[in-house]
Amino acid sequence: MSPSTLSLLKWGADFGPLTLTGDWWRAVTCNFIHIGAFHLLMNMYAFMYVGLLLEGLIGSRRMFMSYLLTGLCSAVFSLYMHGETISAGASGAIFGLYGIFLAFLFFHRIAKEQRKALLTSILIFVGYNLVYGMKAGIDNAAHIGGLLSGFLLGIIYVGSYKFEKADAQRTVSILGELGIFCIFLFSFLMLCKSKITCSGRMLTCAFSWSAGTCASATWNGRSPNCGRRGRGLPLMEVELRGVLVKVYGSGTNFRRE
After folding, report:
1. What is the spatial distance between Cα 169 and Cα 198, in angstroms, rounded to a whole number?
2. What residues contact 207, with CB distance under 8 A and at least 6 apart?
3. 3-state DSSP call for residue 252?
4. Separation CA 77–CA 96 (nearest Å)
5. What's the confidence (pLDDT) of residue 252?
6. Phi-psi region of 211 (alpha: psi -120 to 50; beta: other; left: phi over 0)
7. CA dist., res. 140 & res. 160, Å (int)
8. What are phi and psi of 256, to 5 degrees?
9. SS3 of 73, please?
10. In Å, what is the CA distance from 86 to each residue of 38, 58, 83, 253?
11. Cβ pair 255, 75 in contact under 8 A
12. How far apart are CA 190 and CA 241, in angstroms?
């Protein structure tokens, strides 16, 4: 059972014409909503697996911050690559956690006898999901954005252990987290300024949205499905207080992370 497109937008799915024109909070909320029960269960299984391995290494506070920060980075990279896509799901942030764990594996913060088996397992998981993510309906850009930002954050966390004092380790970690957030913020503001979406193409639309006031939503006159694209037609028609607003662009897609 999958929610409707309108429901996803109301709940906070990532969608360039909304996220980049005032609904900045969608870059956060898109990491907590899912396109159906199966999507949620698969992501929670992957999250549980990496969480059990990673939380003991970095602690609860850094685990929480890692999820949020890599989720933000996955959202902004998704907006850059295809901002006209409706995107939702935890897997961008989950890939970020795997990226952190890979940094710990590569830089020898895990016992040698465990490292090889874990590294092989994680690389197979990440590689398979990136290849599988090339199919229509999956937001691979979010996966890649999360993975890269997670790996960078993981290097910072590993580097913090060069200091013996816990206060110094915490300071380095917090500074690194602020650095990752600044990368996200700068990238997001640049996208907002340029309104670049869909692999760098300019989205020629002005979208007005007020949560809870929509009566209907259609894509090219029909309900949107995964992978459906339109050319030269309104991407979306949303009724706002009885006024029909049409969004125009070069194509649309409906993806899960």
Report:
1. 40
2. 17, 18, 21, 245, 247
3. coil
4. 13
5. 39
6. beta
7. 30
8. -115, 155
9. helix
10. 18, 32, 8, 7
11. no
12. 31
Ranges 55-59, 102-106, 223-227: which has the least confidence? 223-227
Distance CA 74, CA 39 (A): 17
Residue with the two structure tokens 């207080």: 241
Contact 135, 118 (CB under 8 A): no
**Minimum mean pLDDT range among 101-105, 142-146, 228-232, 248-252:** 228-232
Three-state SS for 201?
Answer: strand
What is the band of 134 on the pLDDT scale with cuts at 50, 70, 90?
confident
> Do 252 and 235 meet the contact criterion of CB atoms below 8 Å apart?
yes
**For 182-232, what is each residue's pLDDT tens digit?**
999 999 999 888 754 443 443 443 334 443 444 444 444 333 333 222 222
Single-letter amino acid, residue 205 = C
Please list the active-site residues: 91, 143
Predicted confidence at residue 31, as pLDDT, reads 94
Asked whether the beta carbons of 86 and 256 are under 8 A apart, the reply is no
Q: For residue 204, give the amino acid letter.
A: T
Q: Is the dihedral of CA 30, 33, 35, 39 positive or negative?
A: positive
**pLDDT tens profile 147-187:** 999 999 999 999 998 898 999 999 999 999 999 999 999 99
Rounded-to-integer distance, Cα 189 and Cα 157, Å: 26
Residue labelled with tokens 């006159």: 221
Query: Which amino acid, residue 256?
Result: R
